[in-house]
ABC transporter permease
Amino acid sequence: MRRFIIRRLLQSVLLLWAVMSLTWLLVATAPGGPELILAQNPKITAEQRANIRESYGLNKPLYEQYFIWMGRVATLDFGRSYTNPRPAMQVIGERIWPTMQLGFFSYVIGMLGIPLGVYAAKHRGKMSDNLIRVITVVGSCMPVWFLSLMFILIAANTIRWFPQGEGKDSVGAWFLHLMIPSALLSVGFLISFTRFVRSETLEVLNQDYVRTANAKGLEAKKVDRWHVFRNSLVPVVTLLGYFLPSLFSGAIITETIFNWPGMGRLFYQATTGRDMPVMLGITFIASVATIIGIFLADLGYGLVDPRVRYE
């Protein structure tokens, strides 16, 4: 177990270095930067632009910029934002908590797909199972941005059941502003969990050990708890791990549509504004969250399936 953890940690560090290096190269060689923002102001002289490039270190050779940047990243310093005269991590830090709220509630709502998938499998072929399958198929064909726009058009603008804006006036308004985008963001999680769990549960129900347990007269609840439910969770652990990064990276489309002040909307603003330090900072956080999610998923296999050995 210890060797497995050490080996995975070393692999994770190398993977993070590769991802960040490739991302930096793509962003650094792309057109844009602070001089592009300054170019929109006709009062800025060529000398001032050159001074700005020098202050950000953009006048140095590309390889030198890379090593300077890697040294700063080791101390979690991504430099100053191009559009906001503050450290990039300070700007990002103000958006982490709203994104975590959104991601946490969407995660919780999405996990309702686990009991829903088990229920559908246990009632295979019945009307409730067919209804769940139709809803998941239709839901998987509708992108989140389309559902979000339809919701805003109907529920917020036409019927006016829900307020618009950031919703900081009261607890009720905050809750509505949080739950609506969370529910829409969780649609993908909910559908994935439901379909995976239903499929795995059906496969487990046809296994010999389940038929043997039923033939021995074991109570149905115990069969479901110890043989069916536990074994059907093995692939779900993978999904739980991969969905964990959403707690931190948020959803760019959902946050932008609902004007939610999280990292997703900040990443969109940084991309359109060519704000390279903020883009790389958010990419770093999302990459770390993804690696942690995959690592926890690997550890979770051993908890739900004792046959898994960390060798």
About this structure: The chain has 17 helices and no strands. The chain has a mean pLDDT of 80.
